[in-house]
């Protein structure tokens, strides 16, 4: 019996539509090979939606997402819309409302540097001869970004700005369970990152992580202060397996992790809501990089992050783990064969400089084997 799934595709702006084409080509091959279907509804979002209907997140787009099993998101934004009010710009006017509407509280950011690409990392190559593979699990809807009160006031003749860093035990518990579950599927090592030597919210964070760990006795749990974690990511990224942390720390550390991986064009992400009884999540899947308007339309963007976002979607929302594994392996095979888009190309012997379409084709060829 054929397994049927439904997704909403939001290609967005800049290089978004170009890399999305390749991702959907790969998805089609995976469907045919592994015996399932994925119906997709394409909708406007971001700058493209602003140009078409005057709003970065049209009602019709949200309604389509409501009916879907998952959202496959491209990239939004660009200089064209920077003159708009902040809440009307593509990023803030589309991404944040989607996260809020669907309660997407868990952000999974894999930081993977393949052995063949270790030269592209700013980390000394002798420290990562076999590359590295780290997963950052970031709490996405709490912490200092959303805590209240926040604002500005005049106090004793001085201008004061304030934000509140607040976490409830339930918020910490649910993100930790996502992280422990992810660790169980990997090397069963979880590092919780906090600032418990200074912040009361981090004291509660650490207490809750320890409590949740009792339900996952197979996972080795460690704790690290965020400043040390930032240093250790550069010094020895291979010492990490899964990392779980709050919104602010996760924002910073996941970007650092992306930088040391060598190219944003390689890194997907998933934003997940509550886990269903089936064990799957409703989620939004997107590249970690931006819309790169400076190279849009030139056919040179790296489609791998978008393609690996499809893999994460298959794994976490659609329950097609075998297909997800095959896509991951196909990407690795294409890189091992020497295919390189411009962000990865160095001119070394054995490398072939590829266009967006050629990289997609190489991955499809490997997937079909």
List keywords for this structure.
single chain; 369 residues; alpha/beta; 10-stranded mixed sheet; two-stranded antiparallel ribbon; 11 helices; 23% strand
What do you see in this structure?
This protein has about 375 residues and is of the alpha/beta class. A ten-stranded mixed β-sheet has the order 2-1-3-12-11-4-5-10-8-9, sandwiched between helices. α1 crosses α10, α7 packs parallel to α8 and α10 crosses α11. It is globular, with a radius of gyration of 21 Å. It starts with a strand and ends with a helix. The mean pLDDT is about 95.
Task: Give the DSSP E fraction (strand runs of 2 or more residues).
Answer: 15-25%
Number of strands: 14
Radius of gyration: 21 Å
Strand order of the largest sheet: 2-1-3-12-11-4-5-10-8-9
Largest sheet: 10 strands, mixed
H/I helix tally: 11
Structural class: alpha/beta
Q: Distance between the terminal alpha carbons, to the nearest Å? A: 24 Å
Helix percentage? 25-40%
